[in-house]
Amino acid sequence: MNSEVTELRRAFPIFAAVPPPFHYLDNAATAQICHSAAEALHAFETRGRANVKRGVYRLADAATAAFEEARTAVAAYLGTDDPSEIAFTSGTTMGLNLAAHVLSPRLGPGRAILVSELEHHSNIVPWQMAAERTGAELRVAPVDEEGRLLVDRLEALLDERVAVVAIAHVSNVTGILVDVARVGAAARAVGALLVVDGAQRVPHGPFDVRALGCDLYAFSGHKMFAATGAGAIWIRRELAEELPPFLGGGEMIARVSFAGTTYARPPHRFEAGTPAIGPVLALGAAARWLLTLNWQTVRRREEALTARLLDGLAALPAIRILGPRDIRDRFGIVAFEVAGLHAHDVCQLLDGFGVCTRGGHHCAQPLMDRFGTVASVRASLAPYNDEADVDALLTGLEVISRKFR
Amino acid sequence: MNSEVTELRRAFPIFAAVPPPFHYLDNAATAQICHSAAEALHAFETRGRANVKRGVYRLADAATAAFEEARTAVAAYLGTDDPSEIAFTSGTTMGLNLAAHVLSPRLGPGRAILVSELEHHSNIVPWQMAAERTGAELRVAPVDEEGRLLVDRLEALLDERVAVVAIAHVSNVTGILVDVARVGAAARAVGALLVVDGAQRVPHGPFDVRALGCDLYAFSGHKMFAATGAGAIWIRRELAEELPPFLGGGEMIARVSFAGTTYARPPHRFEAGTPAIGPVLALGAAARWLLTLNWQTVRRREEALTARLLDGLAALPAIRILGPRDIRDRFGIVAFEVAGLHAHDVCQLLDGFGVCTRGGHHCAQPLMDRFGTVASVRASLAPYNDEADVDALLTGLEVISRKFR
Amino acid sequence: MTAADLYNDRILALARSRTGAGQLEGPCVRVSRDNPLCGDRISLDLRLEGGRIVGLAHRTRGCLLTEAAAALVAQLALGMTPGEAQALVRHVQDLLAGRPCASTPGELRVFAPVAAVKSRHDCVLLPFAALAEAAASANA
Amino acid sequence: MTAADLYNDRILALARSRTGAGQLEGPCVRVSRDNPLCGDRISLDLRLEGGRIVGLAHRTRGCLLTEAAAALVAQLALGMTPGEAQALVRHVQDLLAGRPCASTPGELRVFAPVAAVKSRHDCVLLPFAALAEAAASANA
Ligand SMILES: Cc1ncc(COP(=O)(O)O)c(C=O)c1O
Ligand SMILES: Cc1ncc(COP(=O)(O)O)c(C=O)c1O
């Protein structure tokens, strides 16, 4: 095993806990938690537990301070020094639903929402619901046969009726990186706001969210090596100040009375009720830890591994890769079919080789429809994966397709 | 220290971690996590992490099975053997917002929502928003000068226009137990649905949710000795089948296409996206552990402690108790003012005695208005509290009011 | 449980047998069911005469476990009364819950290894549930 | 940090002094600010003559820290230019962030123990923020 990877793996408790063979290639569904996130979570829950935002005793004061430091760390990971642009959520799905609700006042009959064919259900269904609720039209930008967004076609669908464009930064099926900056410029040109589903981008290293030219950016902690239960949404400062709240409850108000309630300023306006404090602290710790990695090296290794995976799959007779065969503008997520075998059977059989993959529609049925299939197997990489993981998958597939087809 | 309490405390890791004096009396804000919940959380996040509901490899299969077992345990805690009545949420606030959204189709001009003056903001603001969204009227049932709900007055406000009644089971300021069964009968008589905010009831032992005669019942894990980040809402089976979803995304759908999306059955219909798996497992573990306690003993001890607290406060000259002075139909939550001292100063000074209490409006500004005050100090009990905790509070108050007023 | 237990030769043989694949001609009860989690689907035709099942055919799109279960349904159901056919699904449920009862038909035990893999229970159950639904409506 | 550090005699004396409590007669700038987390509130009147603050009064409903800060604001601001008054809030922010600078007025250092208690920073800041706002609008 690559010695850098060996060292990285030590930062992930799961590898000491699960006996080999253990080839975890289901990172796009949930990644493993890093040590610093696990420790932040466990320390808070068992040794530092108190509610945040109002308490003054030392335990509560420390919890509140740690909570706000997590906000600062997450902001730093997104390249911004304004923590008030970060609102904590329970995950990407919640963030996108929040977006669809707080932007609803801009929707209505005669207005339109534009999404793409490659979206995860979490970036489709909230907009379908918003369209139904408000009478807005839902437009869909198509992808090509490799699953790449046809940006020209998207631009052609943009006119001044479009109030919101919602798009994934990286596809959870093909790993394709969408040219969000170009989409953002086109959206701005017609006065539309851009919402980005960053679930599959954030695990692959820090970036500058403001440079993307988007307005809201949602993601999940559990996919970026933190805990389940927390995520965040970045909302451009000037926009956040104007937006109404989504959920009502404690901590998001300025004053409540039956004569009328006024709301707190961002980010608190978007954080109703007791937050997922432990998972938020884990998210902050993960962001801090991730910022210490050398991402050039990590990205280079991921690219090499992705290429090895793609080449290996292409060399197997019964495999059909969904999406591009090359590594241009993509991250390490590869979906494929095994001719004559159901995706769930393949995943189950791969488990016999200690290989963890995901089978199914990957919450992207429209994209599956586009590929003319119902279900596929997906392998997705993280910095702790190495050649042995990819090779175990390829060997397993070879045996399975020989024996079970 | 009472030997039963000594033993109970061993089940809570915080007491081994925080050096004495440590008198944690802020349980109504967040309670401490019990060992079994902490272990379920930590084990999942560090040794068993996989996404739920779709994966077939062993790690994912085990995670899914554990997730569904948590549902069964929470159902059992609420006295029902139908786990599909339990939908996991991120907490009470989320549950009540979910309720306000899924019930919105029943609201509109000419319809009314009835809440009470003793509610937490989380059971006010979502309904104010729903009223604004739908054009429904918001009615408010008053309380008496002790903060007890005037059920006669509530009944007088109920007519066939009222579609939803939303009420707390136990007040988070006074600890008063509301006669939910009576409210439920009155609501049913006019065809209204009853939503109960159970945040402050669930930490005080198992009960039969169906016997309450309500339709939806929301609560938080972090107040019932589990982790931050997860809670649940119970929805009566027959009603759940009829309700629309709230959030859209992965796992809550049957089939997604741009031509139209169909939704999964309850409880999955109400669980969009990756849930807070670790915190949910903690909630299940806490429910299982709580079911092993002898609640008769625990309740008796809590009553004795509450009486000791009330008597002690009444004996101090500068103290004004908000709410009843007796222990009839109440749980161990007591709010009070110290004449001439600001609540935050009192809490800060009490921290000097190792006593953790909460100061402020307790997210119940309308009730504070009713009591003619802005802020108060609140002490709230859990099974691990004992006489020493109460006495430390009383001693601290005595010194503080002597020295700082 | 290992993958080899789950995909044992008998299950594979059943799945490959495609017993009952096709559709019935003439009047019959037809039900369709799908498994929302994976999109698998069965469409099952049933014909009754004199209180017994005399014809059964299915179109199944599913994993090997679903295919095997559909084939077994087609093998077992012929000659059964609707009540007997409906009882099968409960026997399978008990088997998957790890508590088969004495009267569980021996043929069903081929699915015993699936008990250990909760996420695949629905794969096996789908054809049996479709049979139960068809039998219930044929009987009504 | 202990509660005794926070509520030291100088802070208590300031709070009890109620310096500047009341309201100005005649023309003045009036601003109100509240602390949404605890509901504390200050209403502050300011009068400028010849580019200097010549009058200040406040009605404050707050904790001891807010009361002490309001009293100190009233002590310090008289005679200051609007710019000097606006600079105070930044000095307090730096002090609470644990990095007071050389030019921080010594009187402000009474609040140094509050640096350790993040949740109380806003209590101290409220009167200074109100002063800055009033000074800015008096200057406009
Ligand atoms: C009565 C009541 N309702 C609702 C809530 C909100 O709970 P959470 O903050 O966990 O969403 C609380 C706790 O703060 C409460 O005491
Ligand atoms: C592209 C994309 N968007 C949204 C989501 C939803 O994330 P979560 O389930 O954490 O809410 C996922 C992950 O499943 C995803 O891959």
How would you portray this structure in words?
The complex is a heterotetramer, with two copies of chain A (405 residues) and two copies of chain C (140 residues). Chain A is α/β, with parallel strands linked by helices and 405 residues long. Chain A is 39% helix and 16% strand. The longest helix of chain A is centred in the last third of the chain and has 21 residues. In chain A, helix 3 packs antiparallel against helix 10 and helix 11 runs parallel beside helix 14. The radius of gyration of chain A is 22 Å and the shape is globular. Chain A has a seven-stranded mixed β-sheet with strand order 2-8-7-6-5-3-4, sandwiched between helices. A four-stranded antiparallel β-sheet of chain A has the order 11-12-15-14, covered by helices on one side. Chain A has 14 helices and 15 strands. With 140 residues, chain C is α+β, with helices and mostly antiparallel strands. Chain C has a single domain, classed as Sufe protein. Chain: A (Alpha-Beta Complex). Helices cover 44% and strands 19% of the residues of chain C. A three-stranded antiparallel β-sheet of chain C has the order 1-2-3, with helices on one face. In chain C, a hairpin with a 4-residue loop joins strand 1 and strand 2. The mean pLDDT of chain C is 93. The interface between A and B is large, with 85 and 87 residues. The complex binds pyridoxal-5'-phosphate (2 copies). One pyridoxal-5'-phosphate sits at the interface of chains A and B.
Runs of chain A in which pLDDT lies below 50 for 5 or more consecutive residues are none
Helix content range of chain C: 40-55%
Strand order of the largest sheet of chain C: 1-2-3
Count of domains of chain C: 1
- CATH C-level class of the largest domain in chain A: Alpha Beta
H-E order of chain A: HHEHHEHEHEHEHEEEHEEHHEEHEEHEH
CATH architecture of the largest domain in chain A: 3-Layer(aba) Sandwich
Our measurement of the CA-to-CA distance between the termini of chain A, rounded to an integer number of angstroms, reads 32 Å
Q: Ranges of chain C with pLDDT <50 over ≥5 residues?
A: none
Share of residues in strands of chain C: 15-25%
The helix-strand sequence of chain C is: HHEEEHHH
Number of beta-strand segments of chain A: 15
Overall 3D geometry of chain C?
globular
Mean pLDDT of chain C: 93
CATH level-3 fold name of the largest domain in chain A: Aspartate Aminotransferase, domain 2
Largest interface: A-B, 85 and 87 residues
**Order of strands in the sheet with most strands of chain A:** 2-8-7-6-5-3-4
